[in-house]
Amino acid sequence: MDKQESKTTPALPEPGLYHNVRMEEYQAWPFVNNSVLKILSDERRCPAHAKYYLDHGREDTPALKFGRAMDAYILEPQRFFERYAVCPKCDRRTKEGKQAYLEFEAAASGKEILQEEDMEKIIQIAESVSNSQAMRLIQGGQSQICAVWQDKETGLMCKARYDYYQKDIPMITDLKSTSDCSPEGFALDVFKYGYFQQAGFYCLGHEALTGEEPLFAIFAIEKEPPFVHASYELGARTIEAGKNAARQALRKYKQCLDSGHWPMYSDKIVLLDMPVFAQQKFGINPYQV
Amino acid sequence: MAETTDLTKTESQKIQTISVDNSSFSSYLDTAKFNQMYRVANLFAASDLVPEHYRNKPANCFLALQMATRLEIEPMMFIQNSYIVRGKPGLQAVVMIALVNSRGPFTGPIQWSFKGEGNTRSCTAYATHKVTRQVCEATVTWEMVKKEGWHEKPGSKWLSMPDLMLQYRSAAFLARLYCPEVILGLPTVEELEDIEAGTGHKPVEQTGRIEERLAKKPIESKIVQPAPEPPTAPIETNLDAVDAVDVPTDPVDKPPTQIPENERYYCQECGETFAKPMGLAKDMCSKLHKNIIDRWAKP
Questions:
Q1: Main-chain phi, psi angles of B163, to 5 degrees
Q2: pLDDT tens, B32-41?
Q3: A18, A195, B95, B239: which could join B81 in a potential S-S bond, CB 3.0 to 4.6 Å?
């Protein structure tokens, strides 16, 4: 690497655990993260989707923005307004409202803009969780720890960002905003949104770095009043399933990377029928020869 | 074992010698038998009269035909009374009892005797052996049912008709113990289903470890009021600031942000000093004293 290049290209981190890394910085590290592996594990998406994600990033949704802001407020309150500016209520359909918004945007100087009603919700959530037993999950450790490691099997460099880490236990905690944090409802979310794979992937990385098997906790918070919350420890079987899913996705990633081919669902013409229940609904016996 | 048999005479009195395999495995090893059984299996698979686990599945039908042949029972009867639970075939208990009664090594049909009530209930299936004249028996107790967890399956027949289930299960034990050759060692469907519900595939309760490890930690309110920097302040952190490999033992504390004098507020309840966050309508201190909003004032 020549001198000029070293000036323009930031050095990439070695395997390890890092604290104090800005989100933008973390996102720029060209390592495999859970988001891309989740796409590769999803039966309803294909490697071509993963490639698009790698090239263009993920579309930011209001739910993602809210979750991120909630995490930041609860985990790093001192730094919250370094990253966020709260937009006062203004009617952007009127001339005055538009002007007020533009002025606010300019004053916000590149910070992420949060709507006032979301901010109010987040404050109420913080109030609700503040004195709960679940706070033990995010005490006595450090927030926003970045992990970088090399996967032994594929040789791929991987990265993860723990919401909270308690070294003495050792335990990784992840905050999740949800519409239903009941044990039944959230157990489905753990599968549906791939939280089990995230836990498995993080644990694989942590084990590779420290040789210790961490526990994985989720602090689930409902994002609508009365903002109830629950804390969960993911069971060993779920973590193991997550590790299997992550390993499988890493292999697929490696295969696509090596071949340079990120296939769609199938190159062949596939015979397609409606699901069995739909055929039966309209008088078809799908079992008839 | 293959053997050579004079099988047919043609009209021209020419004797044809055909090699026929009459061994137990002839349906697999004899081409003609295999082909014929395969055709029959296809026919069964295409029929609406076979249960769903055999419908459109000629391979399943082929194996069922083979088992029916070995048991020397009508293939349709076998197909109608056999089930597949996680890839394992099972016979209905009534078919098993019928096989033992008609072909078993006993002088008469299986008989049963009951003892006790409730948790002490037990059922013994017994029959007299033709050769040894000994009474052969197998007992199933309610204690055993509970320990194996057979009654835990939703809608379990063990709860609605326990005596009948005790008879079925004790007969199955007797058959498997004294004449497994009569039933080809097959289990009953009820047994297979109970294994699913019982300890065989039942998830083992896991014990949470976090609660135990966190038990000694006191709870303290952690969320403090955000301390904003002026909107124009640049965000500092670059890769050089990234800590090396290990996480520092002590949390990295950021120096408190300087709040301009004229923007300083304080909470009368706890005395905390802070700035009003930009655009935030409702203010709170780090102790979340939101309800004392009227008592806030500039020093």
A1: -65, -45
A2: 888 888 899 9
A3: B95
